From TrEMBL, chains A, B:
One Pfam entry name: MarR_2
Domain of life of the source: Bacteria
Name used for this protein in its record: HTH-type transcriptional regulator PetP
Lineage: Bacteria, Pseudomonadati, Pseudomonadota, Alphaproteobacteria, Rhodobacterales
UniProtKB keywords: DNA-binding, Transcription, Transcription regulation
Alphabetical list of InterPro entries matching this protein: HTH_MarR-typ, MarR/SlyA-like, Tscrpt_reg_MarR-type_CS, WH-like_DNA-bd_sf, WH_DNA-bd_sf
Domain HTH marR-type: 21-156
Gene Ontology biological process terms, A to Z: response to stress
GO molecular function: DNA binding; DNA-binding transcription factor activity
Keyword Ribonucleoprotein set for record: no
Length: 170, 170
DNA sequence: CACTTTATGTCAGCCTTGTTGACTTTCCAA
DNA sequence: TTGGAAAGTCAACAAGGCTGACATAAAGTG
C-alpha cells in the first residue's frame, strides 16, 4: 500500500484507507463498467423495437407513477421538454402510452401505459431486474445495503429527493 | 416463479426480502439517479473545454494505463474505432494526448497524456473523486465494500475482466 | 374582463457520440 | 510474397441531448 497515486498522505487511522485516491478511482471505474452492464440487457431489447434508452426511462417512470404529468416526468428525467416530447410522441403514436387531459387542471396531460406499454415495460424491467437479482443474491443483503447507501450519497440532493419520494410513495 | 411477478408474496426466508421486485426496482432507480450525479461534476468542467464524456473516458483510461494502444482502449470503452478516433483526434490536435508509433509493432499507436492532458485529467478526476469521497465517507467502509461488491456483480464478465485487470495492474 | 403565468406541444437547427460501410496505408508473419 | 491485422480516413446516418422561437389552451390574478 504505502503511496499509490500522487496525492497520498499518511492517514490517521487505518480505517480511512478506503478513502485513498486509488480506492476512489476503483469505485469510479466500477461505476463506469457496472453502468454498462446495467443498461446492456434493456438496450438489446429496445433495439428490437427501434427504441432507445430515452424511451425506456420514460416507460419506467410512467409505470412507476401512473398518471404522472409531463412536467413531473421532465423534472425526474432532467431533460428538456423538446427532448422528452419527441420520445413521448413516438410512444403515444405507437400505442404504448396514453395521454389524458387532466380533470382538475386541463392544461396537464396525465400519462399512462397501455396494455402494450405494460408489456414492453415488463419485458425491459424483467431483463434488468434479472441481472440485479443475480448481483444482489451473489453479493448478499449486507452488501446490497451498502450499495444502496453509497449510491444515495452520490446523488445530487434534488435527485435524492426524487428517489426518496418514490421510496415512500406507494 | 410464485412471487415477484407484480407484487409482494411471502418469501421463504426473511433474509430474502432484499430480492423482492420492489427492492430491485429501488436499486435500479438508485443506479439511474446516482449515475447522473456521478457524471455531473466532470460534465460541468468538460463543457468549459467544449469536450464531452467521451473525451473524459479516453483521458481517464490513458491516464490509468499510459502507453495503452488504440485497440486496447477500444476494448475497454466498447465503442467503434471511428467513434474513438474522432475523440482522440481532437485530443491530439489540442495537445492533450500524444500518439507514439510502437517500437515493436509500428502499426500500433501508444497513447500518453501530455502536460496539458495531465492537467485536464487532474481537474476532472479531482471533481469526480470529491463527490465519491464524500459519499464514501458518509456511508462508511462497510457500505463501500458492499457497494463495490454489488457493482462488480452487475458488470458483464468481460467488463469485470477489464476492471480486475486494472485492479492488479500497477 | 384583461392580463399574466403555466403546461404543453411543435418547428427548426445545432451538437455530441454512437453506428455501418468502404477504402487506404503500414507492416508483421507465415 | 502475400495475407491479414492495426490503424486511420471519409461519408453517411441516427439517437438523443440542446437552444430558441412560437402557438395554444387553461388557469390564476388584479
Amino acid at each position: 500500500m504505502s503511496d499509490r497515486g500522487t496525492g497520498q498522505t499518511p492517514v490517521s487511522g487505518e480505517t480511512l484507507l478506503f478513502l485513498t485516491d486509488d480506492q476512489l478511482r476503483r469505485g469510479i471505474e466500477a461505476m463506469f463498467f457496472a453502468y454498462r452492464g446495467f443498461t446492456a440487457d434493456p438496450d438489446r431489447i429496445l433495439q428490437e423495437y427501434s427504441y432507445g434508452r430515452a424511451h425506456h426511462r420514460a416507460v419506467h417512470f410512467i409505470k412507476r407513477s401512473p398518471g404522472t404529468t409531463v412536467n413531473n416526468l421532465l423534472n425526474i428525467l432532467g431533460v428538456t421538454k423538446q427532448s422528452l416530447n419527441r420520445v413521448l410522441r413516438a410512444l403515444i403514436e405507437d400505442g404504448l402510452v396514453e395521454s389524458r387531459v387532466g380533470k382538475q387542471d386541463r392544461r396537464e396531460r396525465h400519462l399512462y401505459l397501455t396494455e402494450a406499454g405494460q408489456e414492453l415495460e415488463k419485458e425491459l424491467s424483467e431483463a434488468q431486474r434479472g441481472r440485479m437479482r443475480a448481483a444482489y443474491r451473489d453479493a448478499g443483503p449486507e452488501a446490497v445495503a451498502g450499495f444502496r447507501q453509497v449510491l444515495e450519497q452520490i446523488m445530487d440532493p434534488e435527485m435524492r429527493r426524487h428517489f426518496q419520494t418514490f421510496k415512500e410513495g406507494s
